[in-house]
């Protein structure tokens, strides 16, 4: 793959272009994309035109650039995360119908939780997680469930930081987090109030594959003051998690292999 004068390859530049889009920047002008991808405007224009020809990028009615349908097609062909989300969806729907707010499924990626499936309603409490979006693992209930059940060296590497505060309630003390993770490993659930968004509560349980490995966190985000009772939510989540595990066992392997 040919390199640019700056030494980065075409793949490097393509990845930077695609990585410029995130849940907070779902559409970009050409100039914004050039700046976020750290590319000269002439290079950005050439890449954009090439990517649009292959439907990897497209323009919305306002002329702004978005990820194209061709990228969506490619990402949905062989992703283990997509397979897991598809398998989990019926079980998540049962939780969603019961809670009536936000239900989400996340996996651990580096220092963040990647949300691979999310269900919500117009009347649900507003919060910042989105499908294909990421959250700091230490600040989210799904993230803490995943960290708690991760290998010790993964937990300790994470606790070495940085541990940014999202709200004033976000726990950033490694010693306190270590105790929280130990409690989660004992009781197999996490409950956080106001750690990501004020006025919301996140509750999550681990999802195990057919071999007993924790592969995801299944959680809800609800209004801290107005929601169905915590024990009832917990039971709904655990029932759904067990259903996902049963389906994975029926397949005879983990979809996240």
TrEMBL record:
Record keyword DNA-binding present: yes
Query: Which Gene3D superfamilies does this UniProt record tie to the protein?
Result: 3.30.450.40, Winged helix-like DNA-binding domain superfamily/Winged helix DNA-binding domain
Q: Does the keyword tRNA-binding apply?
A: no
- Mention one GO biological process in which this protein takes part, according to its record: negative regulation of DNA-templated transcription
Q: Where is the signal peptide?
A: none
Database matches in Pfam families: HTH_IclR (PF09339), IclR_C (PF01614)
All copies of the HTH iclR-type domain together span 8-69
Keyword entries, A-Z: DNA-binding, Transcription, Transcription regulation
Question: A GO molecular-function term, please?
Answer: DNA binding
Residue ranges occupied by any IclR-ED domain in the UniProt entry: 70-250
List the PANTHER family: HELIX-TURN-HELIX TRANSCRIPTIONAL REGULATOR, ICLR FAMILY, HTH-TYPE TRANSCRIPTIONAL REPRESSOR ALLR
What is the name of the protein in this document?
Transcriptional regulator
Give the species this sequence originates from. Answer: Brevibacterium aurantiacum
